[in-house]
């Protein structure tokens, strides 16, 4: 069947490609599934045999062409299936590698955020210190000025008796007012700081919670994919149907007895 | 199992004491040493990432796993090193299931398997083997290991099968009907015995050298021979840390040859108790298989001693001794009628 031969070769050409071992290695392949020519031949002869036994063995020309076509189709089908399996496997492997990388990054980030949270929790708030920004300073200056002005204009300080005395009174008042203002500022600053601190902790906790969830989801997807990946689709048997002894085997009769003996022994084992 | 509509995968398995091999009708053939290793603790499990390791991989991680050799001497039982029968049973089950997975079965194919089991396995053991296999395949049958070898080679009449394993040499007489107890002889002068003999001889020959039984076994598997002439066999062992070479040709030959006399004695027993009319034919059809048959020149050496003691004989070495059993089991599976498989489902 020269025509069949050419068709088969063409089919092999259509479905295969050349690649160097080095290239495969570069692509990270450690193991490859190779379809040996021997296997291909086996697939083909199995296909031929199957088709022939389903038909009358004496074939006229038209039937022969029909057989050729069917064989060709069967072969194409087997080859396509093989390719599909390989492709599926490859895409799953890629996805798996991506997810693994993502998982690693998430883990790293979670660790960082946990360190930050820990540090923030440990940070002690100093209620006795007063820090003023430039704006804060201007603000305090303005308020002191206003306070002095208020003191002077309200007549809270009596200038009619000795000046020195009056100046000392004024000084006391200003110190009072200033410390009130600063105390107020200190309290406001402390409150702000505590608020920031709480906010930051809450924010970190929220972020960590989210990361944890992402991580769990990724882990879940990884496990699911690992299962799919682990479920190697397997290698097809060359048989489509149950076989049995070949009637043409000259020792078939004797073998039949042996097979029955084996079966009987096994049946006895089940009881 | 209506979803199994893709085809039928036949598997032949040789479940050996030291090695388990499978041959399948999808062209896959694999072999694994019959070791199962379970992680010792949580840390080891994390590190290994699997519940169990098999064969060489289990051995290579022996510090982090507990090693089981579930079919020691062909039977699943409690062993001297403290493994309970339940533990060995579990290890045997895992090993069988691992071996089947090596065949790469498809989910949508019927799987029918024939397992060649050690001749000495008890009924209870056989039942456990079947139970383990049934968890992952559709139908399974056991058969005697030497019978599978003979069936695979179409030598079912007047044939003597010698199967040299690690723990035992099994001899079986085939005469057209199923062999029974009278047709079988089991010797313990097998691979392990040769290892021990060689170890003792090397202790004298290589004084001061550092080596253990396992190293000797590996060395034997590379160099064992029984012929009179041979290239010198050189072993390199450390002496006080320094690699030192020893000519161990004589020691290797002597140890390997120790298997021959007991085998010929057993052959003599099986031949002389056979129908005199067919004794001549039986003598001429001696099949030699099993891992231990790979000793160079063993077939000729057995023939020579047969000529001396039994007046002649011919020994045929099976091709691919590692797969002779599983190939035979595969052939049995292929030939088995559908109704039998169905009944055992
Ligand atoms: N190349 C070799 N030369 C000599 N001996 C070998 C060689 N390869 C393997 N062996 C030996 O063969 C033995 C294992 O044989 P095999 O794998 O057939 O055993 P098994 O079937 O597991 O054992 P058993 O028949 O006892 O159940 C071991 O003793 C091993 O050292």
Features:
heterodimer, A: mainly alpha, B: 345 residues, alpha/beta, Nucleotidyltransferase, domain 5, 5-stranded mixed β-sheet, 40% helix, binds adenosine-5'-triphosphate
What is the assembly state of the chains in this entry?
A: heterodimer
Largest sheet of chain A: none
Shape of chain B: globular
In spatial order, strands of the major sheet of chain B run 3-2-1-7-8
Q: What's the order of the H and E elements of chain B?
A: EEEEHEHEHEHEHEEEHHEEHHHEHEHH
Please, could you describe this protein's structure?
The complex is a heterodimer of chains A (about 270) and B (about 350). By secondary structure, chain A is mainly α. Chain A has two domains: about 1-120, no CATH class; about 125-230. Helices cover about 75% and strands about 0% of the residues of chain A. Chain A contains seven helices and no strands. In chain A, helix 1 runs parallel beside helix 4 (about 60-120), helix 4 (about 60-120) packs antiparallel against helix 6 and helix 5 packs antiparallel against helix 6. Chain B is an alpha/beta fold. Chain B contains 13 helices and 15 strands. In chain B, strands 3-2-1-7-8 form a five-stranded mixed beta sheet. In chain B, strands 11-10-9-14-15 form a five-stranded mixed beta sheet, sandwiched between helices. In chain B, strands 5-4-6 form a three-stranded antiparallel beta sheet. In chain B, helix 5 (about 145-150) packs across helix 12 (about 325-335), helix 6 (about 190-205) packs across helix 7 and helix 9 (about 260-270) packs across helix 11 (about 300-310). The longest helix of chain B has 18 residues, at about 85-100. The model of chain B has no long low-confidence stretch (mean pLDDT about 90). Classes of the chains: A mainly alpha (about 270), B alpha/beta (about 350). The interface between A and B is large, with 33 and 42 residues. Adenosine-5'-triphosphate binds next to helix 6 and helix 7 of chain B.
């Amino acid at each position: 069947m020269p025509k069949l031969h050419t068709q088969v070769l063409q089919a092999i050409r259509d479905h295969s490609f050349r690649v160097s071992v080095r290239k495969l290695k570069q692509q990270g392949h450690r193991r490859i599934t190779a379809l040996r020519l021997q296997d291909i031949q086996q697939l083909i002869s199995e296909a031929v045999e199957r088709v022939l036994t389903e038909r009358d063995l004496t074939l006229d020309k038209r039937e022969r062409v029909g057989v050729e076509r069917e064989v060709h189709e069967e072969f194409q089908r087997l080859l396509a299936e093989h390719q599909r399996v390989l492709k599926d496997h490859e895409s799953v492997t890629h996805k798996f590698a991506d997810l693994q990388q993502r998982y690693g990054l998430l883990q790293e980030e979670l660790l960082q955020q946990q360190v930050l949270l820990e540090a923030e929790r440990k940070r002690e708030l100093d209620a006795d210190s007063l820090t003023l920004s430039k704006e804060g300073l201007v603000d305090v200056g303005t308020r002191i000025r206003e306070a002095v002005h208020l003191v002077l204009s309200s007549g809270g300080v009596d200038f009619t008796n000795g000046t020195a005395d009056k100046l000392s009174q004024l000084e006391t008042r200003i110190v009072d007012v200033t410390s009130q203002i600063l105390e107020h500022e200190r309290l406001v600053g402390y409150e702000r700081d505590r608020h920031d601190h709480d906010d930051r902790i809450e924010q970190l906790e929220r972020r960590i919670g989210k990361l944890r969830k992402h991580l769990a989801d990724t882990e879940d997807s990884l496990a699911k994919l690992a299962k799919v990946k682990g479920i190697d689709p397997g290698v097809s048997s060359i048989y489509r149907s149950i076989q049995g002894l070949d009637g043409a085997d000259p020792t078939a009769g004797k073998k039949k007895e042996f097979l029955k003996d084996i079966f009987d022994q096994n049946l006895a084992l089940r009881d | 199992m209506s979803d199994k509509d893709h085809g039928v995968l036949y598997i032949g398995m040789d479940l050996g004491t030291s090695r388990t091999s499978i041959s399948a009708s999808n062209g896959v053939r694999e072999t694994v040493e019959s070791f199962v290793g379970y992680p010792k603790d949580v840390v080891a499990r994390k590190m290994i990432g699997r519940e169990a390791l098999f064969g060489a991989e289990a051995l290579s991680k022996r510090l982090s796993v507990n090693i089981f050799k579930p079919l020691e001497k062909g039977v699943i039982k409690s062993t001297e090193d403290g493994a309970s029968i339940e533990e060995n049973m579990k290890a045997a089950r895992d090993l069988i299931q691992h071996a089947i997975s090596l065949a790469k079965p498809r989910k949508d194919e019927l799987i029918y398997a024939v397992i060649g089991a050690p001749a000495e396995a008890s009924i209870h053991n056989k039942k456990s083997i079947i139970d383990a296999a049934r968890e992952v395949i559709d139908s399974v049958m056991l058969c005697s290991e030497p019978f599978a070898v003979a069936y695979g080679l179409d030598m079912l009449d007047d044939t003597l099968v010698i199967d040299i394993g690690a723990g035992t040499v099994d001899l079986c007489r085939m005469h057209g009907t199923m062999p029974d107890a009278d047709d079988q002889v089991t010797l313990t002068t097998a691979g392990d015995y040769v290892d021990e003999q060689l170890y003792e001889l090397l202790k004298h020959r290589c004084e001061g050298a550092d080596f253990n039984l396992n190293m000797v076994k590996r060395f034997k598997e590379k160099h064992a021979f029984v012929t009179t002439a041979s290239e010198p066999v050189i072993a390199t062992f450390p002496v006080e840390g320094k690699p030192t070479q020893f000519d161990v040709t004589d020691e290797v030959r002597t140890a390997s040859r120790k298997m021959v006399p007991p085998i010929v004695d057993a052959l003599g027993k099986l031949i002389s108790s056979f129908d005199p009319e067919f004794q001549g034919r039986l003598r001429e059809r001696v099949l030699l298989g099993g891992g231990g048959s790979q000793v160079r020149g063993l077939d000729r050496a057995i023939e020579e001693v047969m000529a001396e003691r039994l007046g002649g004989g011919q020994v045929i070495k099976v091709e691919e001794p590692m797969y002779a059993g599983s190939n035979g089991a595969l052939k049995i599976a292929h030939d088995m009628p559908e109704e039998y498989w169905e009944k055992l489902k």
